Amino acid sequence: MALWKKNVALLIVVILIVLGALERKNIYKIFRKEKVKSSIPMDHSSVTEIKNIGRPISITKDKDGNFYTCDFSGHNVKILDSNFSLIKQIGKDVKGSNPGEFNVPHAVDFDAAGNFYVTDYANKRIQKFSPSGEFLSIINFERALAGPATAYFDKNYNLYISDFDSNSLIKSTKDGKLLGWIGAKIDGTLTDGWELSGSPAQSAEPGGFYKLHSAKFSDDGIMYVIDSHNNRVQRFSEDGKFMGWIGAKEDGLLTNGWEMTGKAISTDVPGGFNIPVAMDFINGEEIAILEYGNPRIQKFSKDGKFLGWYGGTQDSKVTDGWQITGLPREGTDVGAFKNAYDLKVYGNKVYVADTGNYRLQIIDFHP
Fold this sequence. Notes:
Blueprint: H1 2-24, H2 27-38, E1 44-50, E2 56-61, E3 67-71, E4 76-80, E5 86-90, E6 105-110, E7 116-120, E8 125-129, E9 135-138, E10 148-153, E11 159-163, E12 168-172, E13 178-182, E14 184-185, E15 200-201, E16 212-217, E17 223-227, E18 232-236, E19 242-249, E20 264-265, E21 276-282, E22 286-291, E23 296-301, E24 306-313, E25 328-329, E26 342-346, E27 349-354, E28 359-366
InterPro entries: 6-blade_b-propeller_TolB-like, NHL_repeat, TRIM-NHL_E3_ligases
Keywords: Repeat
Protein name: NHL repeat containing protein
């Protein structure tokens, strides 16, 4: 009996040692993560496609239910009604630099009065229009823009400009007064909050950027930044302080929450990214992230845990709701994507500017 007890005790010690080793290598964390994943209730989905609206690179909805798309190839902004019929087109079908003309317009957002602001990427400017679409002004920013991808307002109507070509996020009033910028500095250090002076630089260090594409605020005041060419999503406090990143790590493992150190790598494995470009919030609790390099949408909890992905599958089908495993497939069939650039969530529906397929897709997730 004493020998039996001794053998059991020895076995327990061995098990504890093995589990400790696995924990140190993050292997046990992966097993535990997979167990959590498999218990997630899955949604089902139905998809509607909208064609014949040019080559949309963005999609935004106003308070009246009209939609605004930036046409990547047509260099114009289209205002569409709730049935996606054309109300008005702003800009010619060729690139231009005069007021009211565009050269690769990229995104639209609205101020409290309903005026809308268009990031005019290749013209390195942001233009302001009235609610009826009349040109009002070119915003004279105190800090020159190098190539703005998107510009979105927070709840106080401060403007956050993802300046793609300067690798910096700029905070400004809607009239152009500089409130600060964040990113890496040319001396190799990182900002620790909004700075009013200095020059930005490309960086893969946490808190730095390489071709950032979008920044959005959650209801609890956390700012999420799509750091596209660093293949990660970062988050910051309202005062511009770094709070972590998610994606694939250099050792090949995936983050399982917001990491404060390390660098990201490109991957097609679910939970990692290949050029993420846009994001929005689902019911205020989850994050939908669209990738350009991987033709899919991924969903994460706000604490940075992977919850599933949506898109075309390797067996020439489309996921029916959020899928946990498998790799995405580029395609032209409804529900698959090709070089998609923008994503917005309105109600239970996810709207995707499926740029490479010259269409919008509306995905309705339901139990």
